[in-house]
Amino acid sequence: MWWMMGETGGHYCNKKTDDICGDVCGQESNKVLSMSRIRCILRGWDVKTLIFLFAFVPTCIFFIYLHGQKISYFLRPLWESPPKPFHVLPHYYHENVSMENLCKLHGWKIREYPRRVFDAVLFSNEKEILELRWKELYPYVTQFVILESNSTFTGLPKPLFFSSYRDDFKFVEPRLTYGTIGGRFKKGENPFIEEAYQRVALDVLLKKAGIEDDDLLIMSDVDEIPSRHTINLLRWCDDIPPVLHLQLKNYIYSFEFHVDDSSWRASVHRYQSGKTRYAHYRQTDDLLADAGWHCSFCFRRISEFIFKMKAYSHYDRVRFSHYLNPQRVQKVICKGADLFDMLPEEYTFKDIIGKMGPVPRSFSAVHLPSYLLENADKYKFLLPGNCKRESG
């Protein structure tokens, strides 16, 4: 087969070519063969294309990893429409106007005697806000109902905080119905399932507290505080809606950072046996304007911020461990920025862009809960100009 051999004794390649790929013919070493194949693959690719592949593409992937949630929230208006607007009821109040006239202004009649009021909450660790809430509502609440679990919504074990400092709430003891419930501690479960489980347990505790038909039931989180004059109005007026959501002024970290007036999940119900169920979602289209305050993440201590970030239903927002760094948390609080580095949860580009960035400071402490102002030294951290928190 000598005619198949080249002059050097190597194999003859009958494919006549002078290009790069042609170098793969012959008895080359594996290293040379591999390099030739790479050169063949990359043939025709210019420098810009290589830079795009090996620099720009990985950078984009890393950017999406860091800011994918922001991108998703910003593009939300493309695939999700705003919810149906509420029917907003004007809210009339002045301390010098009689209750009869206030009921009349709302289109209602005054009752011969006021309804009983039950205030029911799930408790985690919001001691100071709970005290503000109960001091605000104390004159008009018949029974304070509080349920506490040894589990967070995310399935983490927690102490029974309220039980440990129950003595600080002796002023409500004669009107207090306190219950506990054991957590299920199911790892990996959607936190909203545990939350719903605990809210259902509140229905049982309310019956134990003695609630009856046509009593008023306040359904809201601890930090969603109805104003006392709102509750007094609803307990004295007849023909109020069977279910009424409350529009609350929305604050974050303290009453220094006023986000907006769009908090609506708090609600008041005229209780109906077998029908009323404790819930924290939209249950009617009726919304009473300017009915109180929602102070989210309004804690005295940095450790309490971190506990809630890990404990509440939106724990998935803690995408990186450094979000829980105490120094970072303190910096975010004083800046009025978002603890989870998220964009606003809005449904139009106009609203999203309008709310981007830190929440502007407010220097107004007008129309806040009276007990807060009467005890300003004790609750200094909730007032404008006092963003520094205790560490413990």
Verbal overview:
This is Beta-1,4-mannosyl-glycoprotein 4-beta-N-acetylglucosaminyltransferase. The chain crosses the membrane at residues 45-66. Keywords: Membrane, Transmembrane, Transmembrane helix. With 392 residues, this protein is of the alpha/beta class. Among the domains are: 18-74, no CATH class; 87-299, Spore Coat Polysaccharide Biosynthesis Protein SpsA, Chain A, CATH 3.90.550. Helix content is 32%, strand content 16%. It has helices spanning 30-41, 47-74, 76-79, 99-105, 127-137, 161-164, 191-209, 228-236, 302-311, 326-335, 349-355, 370-374; strands at residues 87-89, 109-110, 117-123, 143-149, 176-181, 216-219, 224-226, 237-238, 243-246, 248-252, 258-263, 267-270, 286-288, 292-296. Strands 1-13-9-12-6-3-4-5 form an 8-stranded mixed β-sheet, sandwiched between helices. Strand 4 (143-149), helix 6 and strand 5 (176-181) form a beta-alpha-beta unit. The longest helix is centred in the first third of the chain and has 28 residues, at 47-74. The N and C termini lie far apart (89 Å). Residues 1-28 have low confidence and may be disordered.
